[in-house]
Amino acid sequence: MEKIKSLADLRKIREEAREKLDLRVKGDNPEGLVQVKVAMATCGIASGAKPIMEFFVEELDKRGIAAVVTQTGCMGYCYAEPTVEVQLPGREPVVYGFVDRKRADEIIEKYIKNGELVEGIIPVNYEKID
Amino acid sequence: MHLLVCGGTGCRASESSLIVESLKREIEEKGLSNEVQVITTGCFGFCEKGPVVKVMPDNTFYVHVKPEDAAVIVAEHVIKGRPVHRLLYVDPVSKEAVNDSKHMGFYRKQIRIALRNCGFINPENIDEYIARDGYAALGKCIGELTAADVIDIMKKSGLRGRGGAGFPTGLKWEIASKNKADQKYVVCNADEGDPGAFMDRSVLEGDPHSVLEAMAICGYATGASRGLIYIRAEYPLAIQRLKIAIDQARGYGLLGQNILGTSFSFDIELRYGAGAFVCGEETALIHSMEGQRGEPTNKPPFPAESGFLGLPTNVNNVETFANVPVIINKGWEWFSSIGTEKSKGTKVFALAGKINNVGLIEVPMGITLREIIFEIGGGIKNGKKFKAVQTGGPSGGCLTEEHLDTPIDFDNLVAAGSMMGSGGMIVMDEDDCMVSIAKFFLEFTVEESCGKCAPCRIGNKRLHELLTHITKGNGTMADLDRLRNMCNVIKDTSLCGLGQTSPNPVLSTMNNFWDEYVAHVTEKRCPAGQCRDLMKYSIIVDKCVGCTACARACPVNAITGERKEPHFIDQDKCIKCGACFEKCKFGAVLIN
């Protein structure tokens, strides 16, 4: 890792990183990557988020879908863990709750492949500041 | 097109599954199955207006939908593209129908400032934090602002400590900055100990860099070059993510010597706590970090004068720190525009207990308990009646229905007999016995009292004994007086915040649920039916057919009676295990 020596350097890194994150912010990424975020705070992990994350990583790869699977913190829907947010290119993100292997499989087969929503959606009820 | 139908408990109770069926049938009949999908979703949280149907992508939000409305929705909205006006949500203030759910007040109730990155970025990747303006606030402070400027911004923002006491953060920083010393410290209090509370853990697990950045800013403002995070060892994941974050920040030179090419240097280390509740008190926390017993000492001297190793130390809570970078980036004017007159910004609450949507929420100060519990929290589990909500953890108080519309901020909660605390919120329903609840919280404080001062060590133990006495049906009215007196003495004479607040659950339940205490004492009856010792099992002679099932189930042979004759329970022998009640097929066993 190279040290950041000035505020200008920091801004440069921010712009670069922002481009990467933009995929998630705007969802209009040119390569058409699917973004899958698994909530991996203690609550999520305790309810089995780890195997679900592994499942997504392995299965998306096996099924030849270009996707980025990342972990993130608590989304706040602790009653519905494990929760997974899926964002298809150019679309608003959708949060799924109570994701087990079966539902994960459904999400890949139906939602990610065909854009068909599947059961288990949690409507987002908060606003994030930017 | 997607039709989302709420499948939460509330909407399901009002026949939302029938709506799904009718919608599917209508769509099939019209031959639209390929274009339109009907999906059952999780709870929209707007149970009051359920059943709810949302049409995507245009975000149209229909409320109080009945199964017979399915035909209209399909014919009008799906085919002709015209919203069905009579089913739209009507704004209670403007009386206008709202088309787009994004404009509904309800969905704007949560604002995420401290949790802005939780559930959004990967906490183990510093670049993602930087992309979200991470470390820009630190850069701005050390590059463009003086220490006094930073303190001024913090003071004007009106941010108050989120650990519980609500002390103004800017003022705290100013005091620490004015004390002269060669070495000063910034300490982050991550000793989150309230049962059922996990706000700080979530911030550290989901956005560790925001805390690191804020500590560095605090170091710059107060003149400290070293930071310590006191975190309990029971938070292994938070510790792991913090370690990764510290390594990455050091790698980028955002912690360490000469940050961003300036003369400012700051570094952070972790200190582990063994999980004692009292170590959340700042003097006890500092002693624990010094390797001494985690016991509090008198204030003054405040840590800002003489803290870690006797040097000036500024202690702030995790959530407080998480607010700091945003305030610097977006300005104090923005922050102080949110919240109430004396409590600015937002507060994170861990919503738990008998509530549908258990989880973590961040709401602006001034929101009411009703909005939190019934709108965001989705109401009480299993359709039961709301009874009380405990705010502020074991040191807080129970608030009742009459407080539901009080705007929540630091001062209003204290006025109502509770406190903000660190943000635990435990909801109770009609089945909870308030005397037992007070006893439960006291059990916790008795165990966690460090034992240094007598009022807390002995007094809480005595309180607990008295409450046990009452729940066993041995209490008298004189005991209730003694209980109240002792509470007041403990509050007045304890050394630290733990003892000064531990009687709160007892006092607030006595104030709000006096009848329940009296029922336990005079009638020897527990209105909620929770106190086992006050229950009495008896057999209704008319209903008993003499099948002997209960007598055979009774582990202490307390039930006697001839076959085909009514049976009797010997109250002296009965241990109130309830086995007879479960066994009886004729409903002949009565509990009072």
Short summary of the structure?
Chain A has one domain (26-122): Glutaredoxin (3-Layer(aba) Sandwich), CATH 3.40.30.
Q: State the distance separating the first and last CA atoms of chain B.
A: 56 Å
Strand % of chain B is 15-25%
Please give the CATH class of the largest domain in chain B: Alpha Beta
- Principal-axis shape of chain B equals flat
Major beta sheet summary of chain B:
5 strands, mixed
> How many domains make up the 3D coordinates of chain B?
5
Provide the helix percentage of chain A.
40-55%
Structural class call of chain A reads alpha+beta
* Structural class assignment of chain B: alpha/beta
Supply the key terms:
heterodimer, A: 130 residues, alpha+beta, Glutaredoxin, 5-stranded mixed beta sheet, 4 helices, 6 strands, 40% helix, globular, B: 592 residues, alpha/beta, Rossmann fold, Ubiquitin-like (UB roll), 4-stranded mixed beta sheet, 20 strands, 39% helix
Could you characterize the architecture of this molecule?
The complex is a heterodimer of chains A (130) and B (592). Chain A has 130 residues and is an alpha+beta fold. Chain A has one domain: Glutaredoxin. Helix content of chain A is 40%, strand content 18%. Chain A has helices at 7-25, 42-46, 49-62, 101-114; strands at residues 34-39, 67-72, 84-87, 94-96, 121-122, 126-128. Chain A has a 5-stranded mixed beta sheet with strand order 2-1-3-4-5, with helices on one face. In chain A, a hairpin with a 6-residue loop joins strand 3 and strand 4. In chain A, helix 3 packs across helix 4 (101-114). The longest helix of chain A is centred in the first third of the chain and has 19 residues, at 7-25. Chain A is globular and about 50 Å long. The two termini of chain A are 27 Å apart. The model of chain A has no long low-confidence stretch (mean pLDDT 85). Chain B folds into 5 domains: 2-108, Glutaredoxin, CATH 3.40.30; 126-333, Rossmann fold (3-Layer(aba) Sandwich), CATH 3.40.50.11540; 346-429, Ubiquitin-like (UB roll); 434-522, de novo design (two linked rop proteins) (Up-down Bundle), CATH 1.20.1440; 535-591, Alpha-Beta Plaits (2-Layer Sandwich), CATH 3.30.70.20. In chain B, a hairpin with a 5-residue loop joins strand 12 (346-353) and strand 13 (359-364). In chain B, helix 6 packs antiparallel against helix 7. The two termini of chain B are 56 Å apart. The chains are: A alpha+beta (130), B alpha/beta (592). At the A-B interface, helix 1, helix 2, strand 2, strand 5 and strand 6 of A face strand 2, strand 7, helix 4, helix 5 and helix 8 of B.
